[in-house]
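Hey L., structure's done. Input below.
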Amino acid sequence: MSELKFKHGIKSYDIVEKLISHVYPAEMLTILDLTYGVGRFYRKLKHRVRRLIAVDRRRYVWETVPDEFYEEDAKIFAEKILRGEIKITRPDLIVIDPPWSQTKRGYIPRLSGIADMPYHIRGVDINSIINAAITLSRHYNSPVLYRFKNKLPYRHLIHAEAEVKIMGKTGIVHYGICKP
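Output:
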């Protein structure tokens, strides 16, 4: 397993691009993103994506337009895949960016200064998102790329830590690509 560390100031999409390039140096990928949001992760990966399948609880104004979009909760989407109600192209990589900053969840955007972005709402079950990704990872035998406040306890192909500042506090965000 490779370990990378990044200082404050590097953008998520730069880290994601470095992780994917490290594990998949020249491959075109079919990606299933269970927490798509606006598609910011793919800002520097458009040339590496063969097919982008997006899942989110609602549709946002996209920065990167996906090839397919499912307006579903990640857990419900995974259940529909397993029951055969939804059929998709087998993903080479499953991506999740579950909510991890509890300090900014649920605040009214104009009071907190936080835009109306994905998962900045109360009631999102972080564990169900992670479990949906792991379930689909096993179903398709595809690795999971994640961004989360904790390192996920799975076999990592690569792991990275990035120093961040949120609401004036410094912390570490973990990124990784894990085997099923």
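The chain has one domain: 11-153. The first helix runs from residue 12 to 23.

-- N.
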